[in-house]
Design goal:
By secondary structure, the protein is an alpha/beta fold. The chain folds into two domains: 196 residues, 2-enoyl-CoA Hydratase, Chain A, domain 1, CATH 3.90.226; 47 residues. A six-stranded mixed beta sheet has the order 1-2-3-5-7-10, with helices on both faces. Helix 1 packs parallel to helix 3 and helix 4 crosses helix 5.
């Protein structure tokens, strides 16, 4: 049985973590399979948005598979580290928006998988945390950097240094959750609805907007504005821009069909 399942509905992909018997813990093989699927999606010019969700009610993902790590040699630990960096980098590098749909536990590498996505939708069963310091580790899937950028360094430090878990209400208050979902079990549906809304827009514009946001956010303002200008030019001189303006003046929905640039 595949540990990662991918389905398509038009321009939207749904990526499913499918190791519920292990609460979707990330083994070396799991990491390699998920990175490979993300690489395939990144190379697909027809993709406009994606959703990352999990099978199983108890967990989105509980992080690294510590049972597999038990007894690892230093060489095996380092080899897995390389595979894990490739995994998290493959999600961060996806050129279209991807939304994490979280229910249940999102701990350690599980929270980092969600943080690598552009947006997080979650229901009231969601529990978040970075417990690495409690087992003698430091988050290594972007947790120290991505969480600080999302909720600020002091709030991130509170979670990083204590290893404590936060429930849905506190996660919403902290800003970890972008799209709160009222009904339990409907985070995937909410994420898909959001992905479809994104996919209805110009793929050229959305891809370049994501590039400008991800590239420019940590640059000085002047450099970030140059990144924005590059993204603007890529969209402004595309067929999508011509179609968007034409459709607006003709009072009809636009039909975007150009390949993203």
């Amino acid at each position: 049985m595949a540990m990662i399942e991918v389905s398509r509905a038009g321009a939207v992909a749904e990526v499913v973590l499918n190791r519920p018997e292990a609460l979707n813990a990330i083994s070396t093989a799991f990491a390699g399979e998920l990175a490979a699927r993300m690489g395939e999606l990144a190379a697909d010019g027809s993709l406009r948005a994606a959703v990352l969700r999990a099978n199983g009610e108890k967990a989105f993902c509980v992080g690294a598979d510590l049972k597999e790590r038990n007894g690892f040699s230093d060489a095996e630990f380092l080899a897995q580290r390389i595979a894990f960096r490739e995994l998290f980098g493959s999600i961060l590098g996806l050129p279209v928006p991807i939304i994490a749909a979280v229910g249940g536990y999102a701990l350690g590498g599980g929270l980092e998988l969600a943080l690598c996505c552009d947006l997080i939708a979650a229901d009231e069963t969601a529990v978040f945390g970075l417990p690495e310091v409690t087992v003698g580790l430091v988050p290594g899937g972007g947790g120290t950097q991505l969480l600080a950028r999302k909720i600020g360094p002091s709030r991130a430090g509170d979670l990083l240094y204590t290893g404590r878990r936060v429930g849905f209400a506190e996660a919403c208050a902290l800003g970890i959750v972008d799209r709160p979902v009222d009904e339990v079990g409907t985070a995937p549906a909410a994420a898909l609805e959001l992905a479809r809304r994104i996919a209805a827009n110009s793929p050229v514009a959305v891809r370049n907007a994501k590039r400008a946001l991800r590239t420019g956010v940590d640059l000085p303002l002047a450099a970030g504005l140059d990144v924005e200008d590059s993204a603007w030019r890529a969209a402004a001189f595309s067929a999508d821009r011509a179609e968007g303006i034409r459709a607006f003046n003709e009072k009809r929905p636009p039909v975007f069909g150009a390949q993203p640039s």
